[in-house]
Amino acid sequence: MKEGPTGVGLNELKRKLLISDPQHFGVTIPHTSRPKRNQESDGVEYHFISKHLFETDVHNNKLVEYGEYKGNYYGTSLDSVRSVLSKNKVCLLDVQPHTIKLLRTSEFKPFVVFVKPPTMERLRETRKNSKIISSKDDKGSAKPFTEEDFQEMLNTAEMMESQYGHLFEKVIVNDDLTTAFSELQLALKQLETETHWVPVSWTHS
Ligand SMILES: Nc1ncnc2c1ncn2[C@@H]1O[C@H](COP(=O)(O)OP(=O)(O)OP(=O)(O)O)[C@@H](O)[C@H]1O
């Protein structure tokens, strides 16, 4: 499980992990109530369900997280996480910090990595040629980072870390991308090869 402020590089790091070992890592397929487009297939880009069913699922706590955008719901179900785990893969999931509590169970055994922005100076330097890809925008528009984007990223990161820092198992500063990716790979490898501490209740199941 990874998290961090918008634009910090979560998608980029997730993409790199998936490419590096597609047998080992997996991602969830989200649910949406938006109508399926012609070129899309159910269960590939999204699980397409009705608005009514989405609301029932929300009511029955079947979703890890969900939100509404342009009148349609989008969300990730607990079952979609289970489906990745059932293939014996490590599920890469970005979540809001308040969701960590929900996932800290013996079933999911999350390893929480906080992806943190570097200093303002280093953001300016490293993101010179980077574009923010608006995930919310259907056309996937991309525009350069502004000073405000950097400031917001730093503010959000500080807020997240002060409020939820105790829930992070690993903090990775995404300064140089290649270095950050290597650190992430190493942390995940160590997680699988070395002994680490978990709540005692997790050892009984
Ligand atoms: N270390 C880095 N150096 C330079 N550019 C980077 C670095 N990390 C990410 N980027 C670029 O910054 C942009 C935003 O990254 P990305 O889309 O991964 O962010 P995100 O955290 O997933 O954002 P969101 O939550 O809004 O989807 C991308 O164009 C990405 O290539």
TrEMBL record:
SMART domains listed in its UniProt record: GuKc
UniProt xrefs under Pfam families: Guanylate_kin
Annotated ranges, domain Guanylate kinase-like: 1-189
Top-rank taxon: Eukaryota
Gene3D superfamilies associated with the record: P-loop containing nucleotide triphosphate hydrolases (3.40.50.300)
Stored InterPro entries: GK/Ca_channel_bsu, Guanylate_kin-like_dom, Guanylate_kinase_CS, MAGUK, P-loop_NTPase
UniProt name for this protein: MAGUK p55 subfamily member 7
Organism: Ataeniobius toweri
Gene of this entry: MPP7
